[in-house]
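Subject: sequence -> structure tokens, single chain

Hey, anyone have a minute? Need the predicted structure for the following. Not urgent.
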Amino acid sequence: MAIVKDNFILQLVRGSIGKQITIYERNGQVIMAKKRGPSNKKPTLKQLQARQRMAAAVVKAQQMLADPELKAYYASLAGPGQNAYNMAVKDAYHAPEIEAVEIVDEGVTITVRNEFRVAEVKVNVIDAAGGIVKQGVAIMRRNGVEWHYTAGSLPAGGRIVAVARDLPGNEGVRELAIPEIKQQK
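Reply:
Had a minute. Here:
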């Protein structure tokens, strides 16, 4: 690959020259590179999975960009050489990550990381038998990373399941076992 500078003829040319060279522009620079052709190798299982995941992300991104508000949101995040479509695909490709679930006083604090907006965090409190005791939506704190759910009393031996969902609908899930409470004698 070569970046073309101060060449009047190649500054005006775009496309392929025979089956050897391709000339294109990216971020205001003219680039000349060897022309690539289709690969003769069969894709690996990981490559096929990545292609399927990317295809799903593209479909989600196209659906989200149909909403003018979301399109404006993604356009505001785009950097040089990027657009709303690039940002929407990136958001649809990556699910939010729940870093921690902690029991704090009478509630649960969930720490969620995502490069883009997290739409909601749902919390299910499940008892030792596997039945849902409480469920609800956590409220985002001012720092934009922590979400709080007021659970009241928690069943000993149960578990808390937190589900974070982003704008494209990707989910991140994390569970926390509720510790047994030791009785004082």
